[in-house]
Amino acid sequence: MQKFQQEYNMIISHKKILIIDYKSGNLFSVNQALTNIGLNVLISSNADDIASADAIVLPGVGAFGDAMNNLHNFNLVQPIKQFVESGKPFLGICLGLQLLFTESEEFGYTKGLNLVKGKVKRFNMNNNAGENRKIPQIAWNKINRINDNTWDNTPLQGIKDGEFMYFVHSFYVEPEEPVALSETNYDGQTYVSSIQKKNIFACQFHPEKSAQEGLQIYKTWASINNLI
Amino acid sequence: MKTIRIIPRLDIKGPNLVKGIHLEGLRVLGKPEDFARYYYENGADELFFQDTVASLYDRNSLHEIITKTAKEIFIPLTVGGGLRTIDDIKNVLRAGADKVAINTAAIKNPQFIREASLKFGSSTIVIAIEAIRGSDGRYLAFTDNGREYSGLEVVSWARKAEELGAGEIVITSVDKEGTGEGYDLELIRSISEAVSIPVIAHGGASTPVDVVRAIQFGKADAVAIASILHYSVMQSFGSISSDYKEEGNISFLNSGKIPKKITPSSLKEIREALIHAEIPTRI
Q: pTM of the entire structure?
């Protein structure tokens, strides 16, 4: 039994990784991916669990306004902001990236968490050639370095410039502070596809659905934050 | 850039992977888990599972297959077949699906699309359209594997599905499905040009060139492929060794004969054909 316990401890981290459940999307695949790389994952919508977590993950699909309403209804806005201020690792995925921003253009303007200055915008209906742009983007697409920035000591370390990741979204972020880590071009529109701001890492793509390279990003995120 | 997705489509009956012609006459090809893992390891962009008899039997075996697959495969999984209620969708998402494909329930009650897309997000809801060309040249939408006529014309139905919140459309040509006669390019193009959500073409591929045509002429955003991939996998597995559950028609497994018009092709060969045609693709 003792031997089993030792082996078990080696595989599963003791650090508590909390996936915030605010009824905006399916948490199965994120949970599956984080568990697969050896993290100890808890799913909760309880503010106390956020405060006591070692790291939090904010996933999400669907509409920005609905998601913000849900965060307010679950009384999670302040706990999330306090958690981010504490300096502990925060990971946002897809809508979980967009919610960090000041505001979204969806239905006029909807206020976000304002942890990152900037806006969330919708893809234009037409591309540069004047053709109908398919929205949402549901596709594998490249994540590229911006100018000569390096991905060293970020969750993208070890990922090759131009690696393909899986995207599903109609809106994209436009930061007004220097947080961009990668950019992506969808049918003529270049936009920021991942950001890092101090303890926040967030991406528009879905690492949990981006095969081994996606899992690699979660592993690097966990390892540079000493979570595994 | 805009990359095209290559989506192996796995038709499931009970515990088995099956393949029919015109969605009928299903033959057992093997175990879905084996094929799913093989496609994942060989660069599939996504997987599409269709429960072929869900409306007739219970679907526990499909849930088991999905759960097992979702634990080891980290690409999007779409599941369709017999999903009629919000709870059905919830259960299949809980089993590990990322998206659901809905046909009959949406046709019977179009508001179901709105309800489901509000609840789970548009990008989770794929509307499956099974089209048969009528004698007057119009394409009509069918349900129950092409057995029941719905009374709807496909282009207007696709537009309506988009309006109600569908995130994607998979268009199957029942006339071409399983035949290896090539995609119905006119059908695919008419849908793709009518909506601004992504369209997945399905039914009829006999060679990688057919896939290229579905994209270049059909304007598809993604392609769902079954026969040519499955038969290629079966060739590369060598002999079919397994304990198939005694369910379904296994005569193919014993004979090893591949339908005449099907050219077994690997994911790699299909991707190479796309690259040759300068169609952006992953990898």
A: 0.93
